[in-house]
Design goal:
With about 200 residues, the chain is mainly β. It is built from one helix and twelve strands.
């Protein structure tokens, strides 16, 4: 097939591979190539149709990472900006609307990302400051906000973020010296700065 010829000729130059429910994508020499089912625009070529051969997504971006959700796709460009395309009915594209797109759409945030993970109906990204940001469906708490409720079509910060969660009871809270101040955090884990990272503590 056409794709088999492309794959055999360029396999050594593929930097990353990702596969969704009905489609696959690779990063090759700074370009994202996709193939397979495209009924929801997840191939990013401006069409809503399947394609048996790998061809580049629309746009002039230079890419460094890609990840496939069930029916949507997200990628990070060379300056750390996140882009998504495909099914967007619950905000999983993060572009400010609960709508699908068949070309890459910029995720509405000033954050710059080093990693992105697309799942069934939501997406999360790790930014350059170590924060985790998520968007999309939240009916079972997928966004980590501490609730099960409405979906979000722009990035939201999970409750724990990427910082230690201070204790909510006992004397060991905030920047307390874990174990050395007479208030052992017997149920807590502590980071190397002495900050409790567990919600329970012994007073």
């Amino acid at each position: 097939s056409q794709f088999s010829r492309l794959a055999s000729a360029s396999l050594r130059q593929v930097g990353q591979l990702s596969a969704g429910d009905q489609h696959g994508c690779v990063v090759r020499l700074g370009q994202v190539y996709c193939w397979g089912g495209g009924a929801y625009g997840q191939l990013g070529d401006g069409k809503n149709a399947e394609r048996p051969a790998a061809l580049p997504v629309s746009g002039q971006n230079s890419w460094r990472a890609v990840d496939s959700g069930e029916l949507h796709q997200c990628a990070i460009d060379n300056v750390g900006k996140a882009w998504c395309w495909g099914l967007g009915n619950v905000g999983q594209l993060g572009h400010g609307a609960k709508a699908s797109a068949n070309t890459p759409q910029a995720v509405k945030t000033s954050a710059r990302f080093v990693q992105i993970a697309a799942s069934k109906l939501f997406t999360c990204g790790l930014d350059t400051t170590g924060r985790v940001l998520c968007w999309g469906e939240n009916n079972v708490g997928q966004l980590g906000r501490g609730d099960q409720g409405p979906s979000f079509d722009t990035p939201t910060l999970p409750v724990m973020g990427s910082d230690p969660m201070p204790a909510t009871s006992g004397a060991c809270t905030g920047a307390a010296d874990c174990g050395d101040d007479g208030n052992d955090c017997t149920l807590a884990q502590c980071d190397n700065k002495g900050v409790c990272s567990h919600v329970a503590a012994a007073g």
